[in-house]
Amino acid sequence: MSPRTAARTTHPTWPVLSEAARDVLMELLVHGPMPRAEIAPRLRLSRPTLSRVTKTLVTAGLLVEGATELRSQTGRPSELLHVHGESHHFLGVKLTADRLYAAVTDLTAAVVTSVDEPSRSKRPEDVVAHIAEVAARYDDLTGLGVTLGGVVRDGVVADAGWLGWADVPLAAELTAATGLPTAVDNDVQALTAAEHWFGAGAGVDSMVMITIGAGVGTGLIVDGKLVRGAHGLPPRFSHVLVDPNGPECGYGHRGCASSYLMTHVILRQLDGTPTYEEAVERARSGEPQAKRVFEEAGYALGVLIGHAANFLDPQKVLLTGDGLPLYETARDVVHDGIEDAYEDDPSLIDLDVQPFDFAEWARSAAALAVRSAVTGG
After folding, report:
1. 356 band by pLDDT with thresholds 50, 70 and 90
2. Which of 37, 119, 261, 275 is the most exposed place for a label (fewest CB within 10 A)?
3. What's the CA dihedral at 193, 196, 201, 206 to 10 degrees?
C-alpha cells in the first residue's frame, strides 16, 4: 500500500472525552488498575460523577471491569477498573542519522511489534514517505508519534542539524501522508514523558532523565509535569563545567560535561580509531589510555548527575542511552563525581540506571502519540 493510499485508509477514531474522563484514564494508565472507591478521592470526583465518567469510558472500550481484589483489611473486595490496552494501537518512530526505529504499541504502551530499517535519505519528503510506508503496514492505528534529536515546536522541526533540517512542518506533512493524528517531539523529552507515565518514573512528582551516547540529553519532571521551555528548547545541563582545561565539545565549550561524555569525543582520544564497543573492552581490560579516558568521562557524568540533583532535588534520576557502558565501566569514578558535585548526602539521590535499547526510543515515540490522544494535546 502506498502512502497516498494509506492517507485514505479509515483508522480507528479516538473518542471525544471530557476533562474528567481524561483524568480518570490517565490515572489508571500511570498507576495501574484500581477500584472506583480509590479513584474518586485521588481525583476529587464525587461518586455520581465518577460513575458517569467510568461508564462512558467502558462504553468507549477504553476501560474494562476486572476481577475483584481486597484492597484493605477491613473493607470488602472491590472490582478493579483496567485500561483496555488492545482497544487502540499507536505507531512510534525514532529517527537517527542513518536508521528508522519503529514500534507499534497498545494503549498502555506495551510493544506489539517493532521495526528497524536503514534510512533511505535525509530529505524531509523521503523521510515522510518512508514513515508513511511503515504506517501503511498496519490498518488499526489510532495515532502516530515521531521523535528525533533537535528542537521541535508545535510539530515543526525548527532545527535538526544532523539531518540538515530547519523549519520542517513534519507533523502536518505526516498527517497528510498517513491520515493519522501525528505528534512530533524531541526524543529525550518524549523518553522522559514515557518513563514518567509508563516506566521507571511512573507516578513520581519530580525526576531528572539523563541520556548519554552520541549526544547528552536531559529531561525534567516537576510537579508531575514534563518541563517545556518558553522557546521550545529541551532542558540542557550537559554544558555544566567539569574542568576548564578539558577538551572542547561541539559548541566550543571547553571542559563541560558534554566534552567528555559524547561517544565521538571519547573515541577521538583513543589511538586506532576503535568502535565504541572496542573502546569499552579496552577500558575494561585495563589498557591505560582507554581506562583514563573512560574514568575522566565517568567523573564528568557524576558531576552532571550531582549538579542536576542540586538543581531539582528530584525523587529519581534516570540514566540511560547507548553510551551506558560508560557507567558500567567507570561506576566508582561516576560516584566520586557525584560526591564532589552534590551538596548533600549522595545517598539521597535515587539513581536508577535503565538498560538501553533503541526500541525503547521508538516505544517512547508511540507513548507520545498515546499521551497526545489521552490529553487532547
Report:
1. confident
2. 275
3. 90
pLDDT confidence bin for 75, thresholds 50/70/90: low
CA-closest candidate to residue 92, choices 376, 377, 373: 373
Query: Going by C-beta distance under 8 Å and a sequence separation of 6 or more, which residues neighbour residue 289?
Result: 269, 270, 271, 282
Q: Maximum distance among all alpha carbons in the chain? A: 70
Three-class SS state of 229: coil
Least confident of 131-140, 149-158, 251-260, 361-370: 251-260
Q: Write the DSSP string, 95-159.
A: E-SSEEEEEEEETT--EEEEEEEE---SSHHHHHHHHHHHHTT-S-EEEEEEEESSEEETTEEEE
Phi, psi of 46, rounded to the nearest 5 degrees:
-70, 160
Start-to-end C-alpha separation, the chain: 29
Compute the average pLDDT of residues 222-249.
Answer: 88
Between vectors from CA 229 to CA 225 and to CA 233, what angle results, nearest 5°? 120
The per-residue pLDDT for 68 is 63
Please write the tens of the pLDDT for every residue from 262-312: 998 899 999 988 999 999 999 999 999 999 999 999 999 999 999 999 999
* Fold held by 19-86: Arc Repressor Mutant, subunit A (1.10.10)
Give residues with Cβ within 8 angstroms of 256, minimum separation 6.
Answer: 238, 239, 240, 241, 242, 246, 249
Strand partners, 78: 69
Strands of the sheet with 78-83, listed across from one edge: 34-35, 78-83, 63-69
- If you average pLDDT over every residue of the chain, what do you get? 92
Domain range annotation of the chain: 19-86, 88-193+359-375, 203-353
Alpha-carbon span 183 to 229, nearest angstrom: 18
* CATH code at 203-353: 3.30.420.40
Find out whether 100 and 130 touch, Cβ atoms under 8 Å: yes
Q: Chain-centre distance of CA 85, in angstroms? A: 19
Residue 124 exposed, middle or buried by CB count within 10 Å (0-12, 13-18, 19+): middle
Q: Decide which of 3.40.640.10, 3.30.420.40, 3.40.50.10900, 3.30.360.10 is the CATH code for 88-193+359-375.
A: 3.30.420.40
